[in-house]
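Quick one, probably user error.
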C-alpha cells in the first residue's frame, strides 16, 4: 500500500519536545478600563521554518518553528489595543529516512495541531497577567497558515 507523504512522516517521526522560543506582548495604556464589548480579536499562525539537525548521538531530529499571534482591536477595527505573539519550536526524532515532501507535509499539516495547545495556554496566561479581556483561542487550528492578519469579520 502506498502512503501519502504526510502518512509516511507520521509513521517515522515522534515528538521529542515542544517549547516557546520567544514571546512578546504589549497593551495600550488604560486598555483594561475600556468597554470590551466592542473589542474584536484576530489570530494568525504560520509555519516559518523546518530543518533537519543531527544530534550528538547521531540521531536525526526535525525542528519546526511556528509563529503565532493574537491581537485585540478597538471598535474601529484598525487600532490595535493589545498584542500577544510567540515563536514555538516543535522537535521530532526520526525513526527512518524521510523525503523533503514528507517533512514539508508534516510541518504544514501536523505541527500546528501539536503546537496549538501550548499556544492556547500561553495566550490564556499572558492575557490574565496583562488584565486583558478573557479570550479563548479555538480548540482547532485555523485551516490555513496566515502570514499577515486576516480581514476583520
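Nope, works fine. Designed sequence:
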Amino acid at each position: 500500500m502506498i502512503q501519502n507523504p504526510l502518512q509516511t512522516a507520521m509513521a517515522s517521526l515522534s515528538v521529542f519536545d515542544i517549547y516557546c522560543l520567544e514571546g512578546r506582548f504589549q497593551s495600550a495604556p488604560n486598555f483594561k478600563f475600556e468597554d470590551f464589548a466592542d473589542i474584536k480579536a484576530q489570530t494568525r499562525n504560520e509555519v516559518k521554518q523546518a530543518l533537519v539537525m543531527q544530534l550528538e548521538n547521531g540521531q536525526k531530529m526535525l525542528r519546526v518553528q511556528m509563529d503565532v499571534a493574537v491581537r485585540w482591536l478597538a471598535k474601529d477595527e484598525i487600532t490595535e489595543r493589545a498584542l500577544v505573539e510567540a515563536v514555538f519550536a516543535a522537535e521530532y526524532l526520526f525513526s527512518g529516512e524521510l523525503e523533503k515532501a514528507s517533512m514539508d507535509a508534516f510541518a504544514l499539516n501536523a505541527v500546528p495541531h501539536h503546537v496549538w495547545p501550548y499556544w492556547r495556554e500561553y495566550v490564556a496566561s499572558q492575557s490574565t497577567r496583562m488584565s486583558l479581556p478573557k479570550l479563548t483561542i479555538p480548540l482547532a487550528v485555523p485551516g490555513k497558515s496566515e502570514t499577515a492578519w486576516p480581514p476583520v469579520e
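The beta strands are 13-27, 40-54, 60-73, 80-94.
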